[in-house]
Write a structure and sequence with these properties.
There is one protein chain. It contains twelve helices and 13 strands. With 344 residues, the protein is an alpha/beta fold. The strands form four sheets. It has a seven-stranded parallel sheet, sandwiched between helices. A two-stranded parallel ribbon has the order 7-10. Helix 2 crosses helix 3 (85-105).
């Protein structure tokens, strides 16, 4: 008898595509996709149940459907997708708490897969060259998505202690990129002018969207437990990435860092939180030894190949001068007196 899998976050592109992909697996009897709104694409053979994981009704769904595997794929870094930062935090943190409480009460649940994020490690000038899974952020975040991820993983570890019979796997994704997915990072690289932090050239790692789907399926169907960094091999510097796009850059001085995110938001293309801005200042490196040797997963795309596939999807050579000037004006305008932080 195959697995009965519940997938959260199917209104999002990655969650929907994963549920559809998993529904075709011979090892799975049924896939149930859950979200507050219907997905905007095909779920293939997966069923959709409209539900808010912050509501205790999720426990009834898990018990009624005899779910034995839960894939929590709805932890998000994008406020726009959830109606603002407050709503995003509620979905990430309160939603995870409620979902885990439901799993704890469900006798049939035997596996939990958590789609987490490398944002767990933060980004600062104190970081090691490569983070291993046993490390934590060198500077603890005061708020934002990075703090959400730390809390979500803490709750997952607590659940694993309370239900030792449940196999818990946490996947810390590097930035997912590709031609068909929309994230804060793809929005940033789609800008006609790329804002950068003057004097910094961070190292970046990427996970191709197809590898993100593949590793979620691999973790769902295999018996390996634990926490794993997930990224394509190798790194790119930000300067290398921008050169490969052929985009102009607008370096901003260090004092502009607090308004860098709001400057990006004014373009209405990218929406950056403070932790994403820190990432674009200091970068981050993930050691993926455990992913390859213990989880038994090897991405098909290196970081450079994943970025190249994304870059190839952009329309080349048509950056209208007016659009470039408008974007530059929005970025520079955010740094004008009265809009940025006052310098003493």
């Amino acid at each position: 008898m195959g697995q009965v899998v519940l997938v959260t976050g199917v209104a999002g592109d990655l969650g929907r595509r994963f549920a559809a992909k998993l529904s075709g697996s011979a090892d799975v009897d049924r896939v149930i996709g859950v979200d507050m709104v219907p997905p905007r694409g095909d779920l293939a053979e997966a069923d959709f149940v409209r539900a808010d994981i912050r509501n205790p009704v999720i426990a009834k769904i898990i018990v009624r459907e005899r779910v034995d595997t839960v894939v929590h794929a709805s932890v998000t870094s994008t406020p726009a997708a959830a109606g603002g930062r407050t709503s995003t935090k509620e979905l990430n943190v309160i939603g995870t708490m409620q979902l885990l409480a439901a799993c704890q009460q469900a006798p049939d649940v035997r596996k939990l897969v958590l789609k987490s994020s490398a944002a767990y490690y933060g980004a600062s000038n104190r970081d090691p060259a490569m983070f291993t899974e046993g490390m934590s952020a060198k500077r603890q975040p005061a708020g934002g998505f990075a703090k959400d991820v730390i809390e979500v993983e803490s709750y997952a570890r607590g659940f694993a202690r309370r239900r030792p019979d449940v196999a818990v796997t946490a996947l810390r994704f590097a930035n997912v990129i590709g031609p068909r997915i929309t994230t804060g990072m793809t929005g940033y690289f789609r800008l006609p002018v790329i804002p950068t932090v003057l004097g910094f050239n961070p190292r970046l790692q990427f996970l191709h969207e197809s590898d993100a789907l593949a590793v979620l399926e691999h973790a769902t169907l295999c018996d390996v437990v634990g926490t794993f960094n997930v990224a394509g091999d190798g790194v790119l510097t930000l300067a290398q990435a921008v050169r490969r796009l052929g985009r102009p850059t607008l370096p901003l001085p260090g004092f502009a860092l607090p308004t860098f995110g709001s400057a990006s938001r004014q373009t209405k293309v990218a929406d950056f939180s403070p932790e994403q801005v820190a990432f674009l200042t200091y970068g981050r490196g993930l050691d993926t030894t455990r992913m390859r040797e213990l989880l038994g997963f090897r991405p098909s795309f290196t970081s450079a190949q994943a970025f190249a596939d994304f870059a190839a999807s952009l329309r080349p050579g048509i950056l209208a001068p007016a659009r470039v000037r408008a974007t530059e004006s929005a970025l520079v305008g955010a740094l004008s007196p009265g809009k940025g932080e006052r310098r003493g």
